[in-house]
């Protein structure tokens, strides 16, 4: 089928080229015209023959009878899997063949049969979709399945399943207990498992709800034709508010669910974005060499993947902070302040790398290298903006003030990065020259087809709020001596003392450290507790004792 289809495309292109040459050929060159006419006739006859053959193959192979056969096979495999599942631990010995055939059968029914034979006309279609959804939801993280390949296949099948409205609704129809178990598995900490695929699944449940996140294709790619419009990533957004609610409910349950999940997301974001920056540095160096130097296509692909992962992780953070803002903003929770400080640190790093004038990111985007098509300012900046707007614009004033103070306290914060979002130029440093007048500046205001007027107004409100808050903070801040600064980060004042050893750091550093390690930074003694430390109170107590 593929061979005949490729031949049809090849002869169609040859016929088109010949007809173009006939139109351009001077009429006085009758010898050339005769040869071209002969070639045109040969290509046309061959194309007609191949088209008939292609139609015959399609009608024979992808017939209604064959469709019913594959549908029967899918139902048999599902019944076998369901029966095997009821055998308990013996399910571990069921041949993986049944799982892979079920996945491939559904893929064949969805992708290979033309519009003449619709899946929706099959008997029991809705029930079968729901049964398959239940199988994927239950077994993608089933510890009884030990084969890495089949686990990856199940994960990819579920990721594709939630991209299409009809199959996503099938996931929503499975019993509530199974839906909650599926979301719980998606929220498990990302370490020691293939986290990228589960992250894609969470993003697809959110796509269509986030800030400027209603697009099917990125703005800068609209002029290029996609290789395959049926790809899951090119489907229209179809968010699931039901599954989002399950996620919110699970994150509110228990003291450890949200911190462990969000710490793993923040760790992976830090890794993915750092890898991306390191790779574009290498790509830029290769592009600047005088000798002809080609960048390895595999390296370009990995670089684009790290960028896409960074964007998707930011979108998961946006979803989390929109659904359950108290995880970051309710400081009565023991981990909220630490999570918010980590989030602010990463957001500032991303903004500074992407928004600096004539920076590395700008230069690599301008190169428009094949393989880096998805790398652009829009996807990553709107994802960061969505998080900032939720922190600084929505919600009560007390929470907004907490988020503002944490963002401004981060040493990497630069107000000009927020101004960049609305196209404001960076203040010129002494001795620098003005940028070229024809240089097009990035601005969210240029994407009115993607960002609503209400969203733009929220960004303007955020910029005005941060401008006033940063001016007020600068006026009120007092100089801090070096001995009062945290000896770990040198960014925040000392605010915590460890017991029993008595060493000190800021709360942000020790809270983050204690997530993975209970030993003191300095003496390696086991930390039993962490207490607030106030230099003024300690000094006055010492004076009173004297």
Automatic annotation (TrEMBL):
Taxonomy, superkingdom: Eukaryota
Domain RING-type: 486-524
GO biological process: protein ubiquitination; proteolysis involved in protein catabolic process
CDD domains on file: RING-HC_RNF123
Keyword ATP-binding recorded: no
Molecular function terms, GO-annotated: ubiquitin protein ligase activity; zinc ion binding
EC annotation from Swiss-Prot or TrEMBL: 2.3.2.27
Signal peptide bounds: none
One Pfam short name: zf-C3HC4_3
PROSITE patterns: ZF_RING_2
InterPro entries named among the record's database cross-references: RNF123/RKP/RSPRY1, TPR_RNF123/RKP, Znf_RING, Znf_RING/FYVE/PHD
GO-annotated cellular components: cytoplasm
Reaction it catalyzes: S-ubiquitinyl-[E2 ubiquitin-conjugating enzyme]-L-cysteine + [acceptor protein]-L-lysine = [E2 ubiquitin-conjugating enzyme]-L-cysteine + N(6)-ubiquitinyl-[acceptor protein]-L-lysine
UniProt keyword list: Metal-binding, Transferase, Ubl conjugation pathway, Zinc, Zinc-finger
PANTHER family the record matches: E3 UBIQUITIN-PROTEIN LIGASE RNF123, RING FINGER AND SRY DOMAIN-CONTAINING
Protein name in the entry: RING-type E3 ubiquitin transferase
Organism annotation: Myodes glareolus (Bank vole)
Lineage per the UniProt record: Eukaryota, Metazoa, Chordata, Craniata, Vertebrata
């Amino acid at each position: 089928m593929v061979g005949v289809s490729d031949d049809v495309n090849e002869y169609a292109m040859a016929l088109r080229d010949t007809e173009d040459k006939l139109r351009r050929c001077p009429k006085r060159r009758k010898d050339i015209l005769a040869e071209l006419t002969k070639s045109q006739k040969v290509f046309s006859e061959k194309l007609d023959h191949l088209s008939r053959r292609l139609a015959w193959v399609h009608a024979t192979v992808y017939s209604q009878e064959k469709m019913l056969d594959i549908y029967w096979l899918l139902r048999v495999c599902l019944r076998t899997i369901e029966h095997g599942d009821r055998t308990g631990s013996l399910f571990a010995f069921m041949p993986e063949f049944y799982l892979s055939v079920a996945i491939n059968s559904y893929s064949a029914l969805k992708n290979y049969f033309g519009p003449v034979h619709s899946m929706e006309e099959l008997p029991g279609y809705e029930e079968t979709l729901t049964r398959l959804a239940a199988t994927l939801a239950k077994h993608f993280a089933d510890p009884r399945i030990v084969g890495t390949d089949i686990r990856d296949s199940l994960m990819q099948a579920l990721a594709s399943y939630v991209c299409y409205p009809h199959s996503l609704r099938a996931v929503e129809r499975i019993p509530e207990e199974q839906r909650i178990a599926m979301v719980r598995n998606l929220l498990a900490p990302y370490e020691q498992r293939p986290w990228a695929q589960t992250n894609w699944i969470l993003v697809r449940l959110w796509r269509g709800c986030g800030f400027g996140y209603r697009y099917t294709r990125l703005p800068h790619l609209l002029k290029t034709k996609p290789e395959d419009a049926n790809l899951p990533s090119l489907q229209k957004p179809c968010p699931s508010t039901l599954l989002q609610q399950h996620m919110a409910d699970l994150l509110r349950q228990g003291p450890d669910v949200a911190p462990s999940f969000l710490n793993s997301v923040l760790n992976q974001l830090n890794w993915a974005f750092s890898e991306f920056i390191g790779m574009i540095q290498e790509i830029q160096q290769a592009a600047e060499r005088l000798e002809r130097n080609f960048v390895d296509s595999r390296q370009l692909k990995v670089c684009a993947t790290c960028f896409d992962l960074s964007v998707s992780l930011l979108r998961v953070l946006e979803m989390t902070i929109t659904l359950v803002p108290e995880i970051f903003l309710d400081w009565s929770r023991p981990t909220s302040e630490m999570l918010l400080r980590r989030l602010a640190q990463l957001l500032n790093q991303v903004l500074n790398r992407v928004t600096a004038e004539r920076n590395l990111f700008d230069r690599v985007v301008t190169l428009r290298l094949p393989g880096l098509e998805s790398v652009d300012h829009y996807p990553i900046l709107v994802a960061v903006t969505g998080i900032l707007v939720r922190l600084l614009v929505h919600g009560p004033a007390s929470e907004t003030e907490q988020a503002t103070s944490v963002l401004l306290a981060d040493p990497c914060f630069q107000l000009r990065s927020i101004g960049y979002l609305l196209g404001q130029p960076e203040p010129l440093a002494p001795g620098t020259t003005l940028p070229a007048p024809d240089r097009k500046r990035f601005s969210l205001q240029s994407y009115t087809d993607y960002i609503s007027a209400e969203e733009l107004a929220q960004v303007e409100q955020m910029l005005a709020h941060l401008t006033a808050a940063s001016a007020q903070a600068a006026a009120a801040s007092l100089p801090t001596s070096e001995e009062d600064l945290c000896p770990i980060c040198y960014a925040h004042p000392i605010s915590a003392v460890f017991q029993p050893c008595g060493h000190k750091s800021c709360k942000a550093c020790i809270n983050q450290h204690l997530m993975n390690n209970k030993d003191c930074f300095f003496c390696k003694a086991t930390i039993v507790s962490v207490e607030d430390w106030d230099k003024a109170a300690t000094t006055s107590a010492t004076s009173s004792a004297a």
